[in-house]
Design goal:
Blueprint lengths: L12 E5 L5 H11 L8 H10 L5 E5 L2 E11 L10 H5 L13 E9 L8 H15 L4 E6 L13 H9 L8 H6 L3 E6 L13 E7 L16 E11 L5 H17 L4 E3 L17 H9 L2 H15 L2 E3 L3 E5 L2 E9 L5 E5 L5 H7 L1 E2 L7 E3 L2 E5 L8 H9 L4 E6 L4 H18 L2 E9 L15 E3 L11 E4 L6 E8 H10 L19 H4 L6
Parallel strand pairs: 4-5, 8-9, 8-18, 9-10, 12-14, 16-17, 17-18
Antiparallel strand pairs: 1-2, 2-3, 3-4, 5-7, 6-7, 8-21, 10-12, 11-12, 12-13, 15-16, 18-19, 19-20
């Protein structure tokens, strides 16, 4: 099998600002999303770009516009409590946009029906929230439709309907979504959108408060940069098909999304679970049979990362390239792009049973949560690799691992914690548990997965943000703060990165001169 071209699997998803070239696509999208309502005109969107281009967002997926949202800034205290959509938007032209206002007002969100369920709306709401933080705005206010109200208007008042939705007795696709995204109800406005017959012209006025807002100044002070990580301690057990494996993986990514995670982390070579139904007892042959699932594995996790809006560290998988087998960990970004990190140090066990070949480059990857690195199991036991990754900007080092006994596990854990301390970096270990009774060399597992920090006052007392119970199928979720990390590197009790005696010792990274950066 030749080296796999990952570009054929990538589906690029990006949230970006609206551009003039997007206007025709937005007009077509609105006709699909709101067929019975008065649509935008080109002049409306051109006016949005003229008055407040930063507040207009689109979602582009594989070259197509599949979602958008519009907004403006107002001083909401200047508007009547019973305002209408036309009042707050100057009939859609937003000429009343006020750069000195205190509130971001959202005036429309739309997602193509074929792409609903992929967290497109959530991405747009997160873009608005980040804009509010950047501009130091007090809150985001929206006039939300209640499109299922027309089904209940003869038996429930608008207030009663809203209460039933909040109590989860009725599902409303807009109101339920907005509540799940942190918005609270201020009041219900009648005659908000005259052509919104599904909502019987009512709208729920809702607000999201910016807890980072600083009064008396328009300057934004960045006090935190939280990144949420969910570590999956994956149970290895016999299965009957790839579809069963896929269901288990989707369950965990779904859980990560429910927790609002930025990363979901799977363990090393957890795909060897597929060997349980391959009926190949010779390890060197079984590993090549396993590599035949590479494309299915990549397609699965690319889909899950985009669908659930979570960056996925896909554990690792045995891949055949140019007649050699490599242990490769993939980063599946939530925008649909993919990266990979080869395991550099191969254990004697991997070499003996499967003939695994080593990689030769340490990668540092850009993500929407800063720079990260992946070091597979044995690699974390070589301090030079972590030092190199941190020198290249990594703030988090993810360590998928697979060990069969407590001694092997402790080597990974102790080294991960040492790397966290000596490099002032977060480290995350994710391991397999359980048994594969019919798979040679994968019969038993031992793990206690966790998230580790440097050791100083700003961090958890024992340098442990969270850890799983040993040797059971479970997850651990924790937040790491990149802003605290940045400050601690500059002014901590000790500053290992700053205080290195470069006049006495220095590491010579040969890969800097012999390996070119690879983008797959």
């Amino acid at each position: 099998m030749s080296k796999l071209d990952l570009s054929q699997f990538e589906k690029k998803l990006a949230v970006r600002n609206l551009q003039d070239k997007d206007i025709e696509a937005i007009l077509k999208l609105q006709a699909i999303c709101f067929p019975n309502m008065e649509p935008w005109k080109r002049e409306h969107l051109e006016s949005h770009l003229r008055y407040f281009p930063e507040g207009q967002f689109v979602v582009e997926y594989d070259g197509y516009i599949i979602g958008s949202c519009s907004s403006l800034i107002v001083n909401f205290d200047e508007y009547d409590d019973k305002h209408t959509w036309d009042d707050i938007t100057d009939e859609g032209y937003i000429t009343n946009h006020d750069d000195e206002g205190y509130n971001l007002y959202g005036i429309e969100v739309m997602v193509h029906p074929d792409f609903r369920g992929m967290k497109i709306g959530r991405r747009l709401y997160e873009a608005r929230k980040e804009l509010a933080r950047q501009l130091n705005l007090k809150s985001i206010i929206i006039g939300g439709r209640i499109p299922n109200y027309h089904k209940y208007e003869h038996e429930l008042t608008p207030r009663e309907y809203v209460e039933e939705v909040l109590n989860k007795n009725i599902y409303d696709p807009v109101l339920t979504f907005q509540v799940m995204n942190g918005f609270t109800i201020m009041r219900i406005n009648p005659n908000y959108l005259p052509d919104d017959t599904q909502s019987s012209k009512y709208a729920t006025l809702m607000e999201w408060n910016n807890v980072d807002y600083r009064a008396r100044t328009k300057r934004h002070f960045k006090t935190s940069y939280p990144v949420r990580i969910m570590v999956i301690q994956y149970m290895m057990k016999n299965i009957d098909s790839f579809e069963e494996f896929a269901r288990q993986c989707e369950y965990y990514v779904d859980v990560a999304a429910d927790f609002g995670s930025d990363f979901a982390v799977f363990p090393e070579i957890f795909t060897t679970q597929l060997m349980s139904f391959l009926e190949e007892k010779i390890p060197s042959k079984a590993v090549r049979r396993l590599s035949e699932f590479t494309e299915d594995y990549i397609e699965l996790f690319t889909h899950l990362a985009v669908k659930y809006n979570v960056n996925v560290i896909g554990g690792s998988h045995f891949v055949e390239e140019d007649d050699h087998i490599y242990n490769i960990s993939y980063l599946f970004r939530r925008d649909g792009t993919i990266e990979k990190q080869y395991k550099i140090h191969v254990t004697p066990n991997e070499r003996k049973w499967w003939g695994i070949q080593p990689g030769d480059a340490v990668k540092v990857f850009d993500t929407d949560c800063g720079k990260i690195a992946i070091q597979i199991c044995y690699d974390i036991q070589f301090p030079e690799l972590a030092r190199y990754a941190v020198d290249k900007g990594a703030n988090i080092i993810f360590v998928p691992f697979c060990t069969d006994d407590r001694q092997g596990y402790l080597r990974v854990r102790y080294c991960a914690q040492a790397r966290a301390v000596e490099n002032q970096v977060y480290t995350v270990i994710a391991g397999t548990v359980g048994n594969l009774t019919q798979v040679e060399n994968m019969d038993i597992q031992y793990a206690q997965s966790g998230i580790f920090t440097p050791s100083d006052f700003e961090f958890a007392r024992d340098g442990i943000i969270g850890e799983c119970n040993a040797n059971v199928e479970t997850v651990v979720v924790g937040d790491v703060d990149l802003e605290i990390l940045r400050r601690q590197r500059k002014s901590g009790t000790v500053r290992q990165l700053h205080d290195r005696r470069r006049d006495l010792f220095e590491l010579d990274y040969k890969l800097d001169t012999i390996v070119k950066p690879e983008r797959t």
